[in-house]
Design a protein that fits this description.
The protein is of the alpha+beta class. The chain has helices at about 30-40, 55-70, 75-85, 85-105, 105-115, 180-190, and strands spanning about 1-5, 20-25, 45, 50, 120-125, 130-135, 135-140, 150, 155-160, 165-170.
């Protein structure tokens, strides 16, 4: 459920600053929406929890290199296990982790554990920024805290510096306010399309 608030919706309440635009969004992401958001953000390689073929190949090569590394350094695996048991155990663990990642085994469960798409997300978008309440935590972001956004017909993704990003399904936005919501994002953030690393493709001055 979500609400679009404007000056007229807020009656006679005193408003400090320009808060004429406020989208109050509550939703639980579906797995399809989460996947669409991650694919939108990482169109070529995917993520460690949702790897695409190039990333799977990378993990497979990583595993093989870990297994043949000791041999290339002049050890047999028998000697390596006997003389360097702790180091050998570490190499085997890394090789196993790479193999699991390449095969995608356990990644879905890890993805769900880390990203908790089963929890409600409460996102409030205003002229000043974006406030996100999720997993008993509150994130207060000004617009300058985001690098860019990407969009499809179903979701938008707001990207923070580093690895954090936020997926918003457009079904959470009132139908009458979707175009205004998109326009608001365009006016506040650079827009990037999949496979595009240009600093700004939104044609807005930021």
């Amino acid at each position: 459920m979500s609400d679009l608030l404007t000056f007229s919706d807020q009656g006679d309440h005193e408003i400090v600053g320009d808060k004429s635009i406020c989208f109050d969004l509550r939703f639980i992401l579906t797995e399809a929406e989460w996947r669409e958001g991650t694919d939108l953000l990482h169109p070529i390689f995917g993520t460690a929890y949702n790897p695409k073929p190039p990333l799977r190949i990378f993990f497979a090569v990583c595993g093989v290199l870990n297994l043949i590394g000791p041999v290339l350094s002049g050890w047999s695996w028998g000697e390596f296990l006997r003389d360097q048991p702790q180091r050998a155990a570490l190499v085997l663990l890394v090789a196993l982790a790479c193999a699991l990642a390449a095969a995608g085994i356990g990644m879905k469960a890890l993805d769900r554990r880390l990203n908790r798409i089963d929890l409600e997300r409460h996102i409030v978008v205003t002229n000043q920024g974006v406030t996100i309440t999720w997993n008993n935590r509150v994130f207060n972001h000004e617009w300058k805290d985001f690098v860019y956004f990407r969009e499809t017909a179903n979701v938008v993704v707001l990207r923070n510096p580093g690895v954090r990003f936020w997926t918003i399904p457009l079904r959470a936005v009132p139908a009458a306010g979707e175009s205004r919501f998109r326009e608001h994002l365009h006016s506040k953030l650079p827009r990037r399309q999949p496979y595009s690393w240009s600093p700004d493709s939104s044609r807005y001055a930021h």
